[in-house]
Amino acid sequence: MLESLKALLTPVNIIDFLIVTYFIYKAMMMIRETRAVQLLKGLLVLLVIAFVSNWFQLQTVSFILSQIQTALIVALPVVFQPELRRGLEQLGQGGLFSRHGINKEDFEKMVEEIIRAVKIMSNDQIGVLLVLERETGLNDYISTGVRIDAEITSELLENIFFPKAALHDGATIIRGNRIIAAGCFLPLSENPNISKNLGTRHRAGLGLSEQSDAFIIIVSEETGVISVVEEGRMTRYLNDVTLREILMNRFQNKEERNFSLLNFWRSKR
Questions:
Q1: Backbone φ and ψ of 172, nearest 5°
Q2: Which domain holds residue 73?
């Protein structure tokens, strides 16, 4: 018994086990609080029914389940397409694959302009849907709006989201430290557990975060409440101080690493 156990606990087997455990953990974290959880529960129910039918030799039930199994092989990649795409995108994320870096001064200036605009529009209860692009490219959504490619300023953001402006209803997308486009259409979330009190802006922000790693800032037109959305999760009831802290925590360290890496490669040339 001990010899067989020692034969199993080889360094290669331990590494193999740890790798599998890590990917299972990452998969569970990726689908947490998404519709994939309900789909997995349905699959588990089917597996239990299949086990029981085989145990009691229920031939008709077993035949039906075998046909369903064939259909699931084709249907599952389609049903889990958003989760699979997000997983593959996360594999490609990291410092070496960064798409655009901002130096510290430009980043801090960008944050202050965003915070100033969001605070003013929150006080005036002006609806805001502001998207900060990260690693996942958003060209598909940028193409649905009007290209701007302008420097980020508080005044420009306020003009874009002014209620009588032509572009105020859509999303404004930021890439690096530039406003790339405004009036963009975003996909609405299909999560059935979203509160009925949340409007289209919040559902659009959640929808985009379910399909990308974008960081989304939302201001409610009805209440002026500031929210942020990322990875399919929403944090509400923020103020300018907490919003600034979140932006710094999510972006500053990463941007500093990207800028340092860029300087390193330049010094080697």
A1: -105, 130
A2: 2-95
